[in-house]
Design brief:
60 residues; 65% helix
């Protein structure tokens, strides 16, 4: 039972609720917007890292 209670503390519902607040979403959206602008610049072979970072952000 102690192991289960430790796991339940980590995976409890609502633990990421603070990130869905509108006052937090705006500052989080700024870097994502800047990554999208860098991708749209059409610089050859220079947009792979921004694309990978957006993929990592989108998968979470």
């Amino acid at each position: 039972m102690p192991t289960i209670s430790r796991v339940e503390k980590v995976v409890r519902t609502g633990r990421l609720q603070i990130l869905t607040d509108p006052t937090v979403q705006t500052p989080l959206g700024v870097p994502i917007f800047l990554l999208a602008v860098v991708i749209a610049l059409l610089i050859p072979f220079r947009n792979i890292l921004p694309v990978l970072s957006l993929v990592v952000l989108a998968s979470h």
